[in-house]
Amino acid sequence: MRRIKLPVHVAFIMDGNGRWAKRRFRPRAFGHKMGVQNMTKICTHAFRLGVRIVTVYALSAENLMRPKEELDELFDLFRSYFGKKRERLTELEVKINVIGDITVLPEDIQEDILRVTEETANYSEGLMNICINYGARQEIVRAVNEAVSHGRFVDEASFKNFLSTSGIPDPDLIIRTGGEIRLSNFLLYQAAYSELYFSNKMWPEFSKRDLEKAIENYSARDRRFGNVRGNDS
Ligand code: FPP
């Protein structure tokens, strides 16, 4: 890749697994399976390029309303990703952080997640946030309630500490695949000044080169954060 300004934090909305599978006359579960494989490939590449923080939207709070059969298939993928195939994750040597209310997951998966987060807690090569049963509105309401329960008035700086992303810099770049142009309740507070990039590719077919193109596109943007001149130009 030519000399470029790298984003520190890239977040992904990995949309289009179901449509990708349907176009190939395969079940949706196959699309999710290939989606997980691609997630590993793309996140690995992002870290190799020098991105420090990667966040993936693995399951939204709203996704939990999907038919039980599809959820069971997704849970099986979580089971293998955080369980028996967890080396794929741990060998990245980045710290794994799960964001969202995972108490709705079957207990064995919760235990697997806990083990992976413990095993990777001291890795400092990068940080991978995996959002599961996550919704930004729910996160903001929970954060407000927590601040209130502490009897606190908050300002922008202190409010951030009540969010699930406390201590993590906001995403510089949010990439959504699958052709839809919306955020779908993802990191709404944190995305205030994120650069957004939408790809028509379905997630399983989003390639390393596509990631590089997205980063090149980001690199050429003038980020002014509401000011007149870019802060990082
Ligand atoms: C959207 O595609 C994707 C999801 C609902 C789940 C995405 C999850 C993964 C790729 C990986 C799961 C993560 C882990 C950690 C194992 P869609 O089904 O909405 O696609 P469609 O819009 O084409 O129907």
Task: Please give a structural write-up.
The protein has helices at 17-23, 28-49, 68-82, 87-90, 107-119, 136-149, 156-160, 208-219; strands at 9-13, 53-60, 95-99, 127-134, 173-176, 195-198. With 233 residues, the chain is α/β, with parallel strands linked by helices. It has a 6-stranded parallel beta sheet, with helices on both faces. Helix 5 (107-119) links the parallel strand 3 and strand 4. Helix 2 runs parallel beside helix 3 and helix 3 (68-82) packs parallel to helix 5. The radius of gyration is 18 Å and the shape is globular. Bound molecules: farnesyl diphosphate (FPP). Farnesyl diphosphate binds next to helix 1, helix 2, strand 2 and helix 3. Farnesyl diphosphate binds at residues 14-19, 32, 35-36, 39, 58-59, 63, 77-78, 81, 130, 178, 203. This is Isoprenyl transferase.
Which helices and strands appear, and what pairs or packs with what?
Blueprint: E1 9-13, H1 17-23, H2 28-49, E2 53-60, H3 68-82, H4 87-90, E3 95-99, H5 107-119, E4 127-134, H6 136-149, H7 156-160, E5 173-176, E6 195-198, H8 208-219
Parallel strand pairs: 1-2, 1-5, 2-4, 3-4, 5-6
Helix pairs in contact: 1-2, 2-3, 3-5
This protein binds farnesyl diphosphate.
Subunit structure: Homodimer.
Family: Belongs to the UPP synthase family.
Enzyme class: transferase
